[in-house]
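Re: that backbone. Tokens:
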């Protein structure tokens, strides 16, 4: 979302920016689930990204929107809120879900 906002601010501001960040985060979690032994939670990564994108976009009120300064400082500002949310929700991915094909 930060790269899109840097290239085109109107495309990344508002709900569109939050949707871009959430979609990319969820797709990254799906890609990592197939390669890692302890898979990340798609829910935790999507919600954490949603929170991070909201605060990064909100930082454009204090910084010039779509600038390199916004991309760096707004990204850090968003990460300060989004990473703790993802860490709190992260154990959701470790819950063993019952499988239909698994014998009881």
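Recovered sequence:
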């Amino acid at each position: 979302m930060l790269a899109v906002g840097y290239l085109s601010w109107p495309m990344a501001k508002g709900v569109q920016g939050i949707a871009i960040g959430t979609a990319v985060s969820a797709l990254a979690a799906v890609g990592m689930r197939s390669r890692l032994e302890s898979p990340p939670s798609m829910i935790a990564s999507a919600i954490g990204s949603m929170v991070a994108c909201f605060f990064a976009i909100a930082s454009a009120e204090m910084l010039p929107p779509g600038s390199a300064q916004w991309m760096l400082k707004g990204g850090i500002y968003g990460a300060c809120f989004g990473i703790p949310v993802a860490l709190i929700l992260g154990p959701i991915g470790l819950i063993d879900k019952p499988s239909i094909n698994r014998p009881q």
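The longest helix spans residues 68-89. The mean pLDDT is 84.
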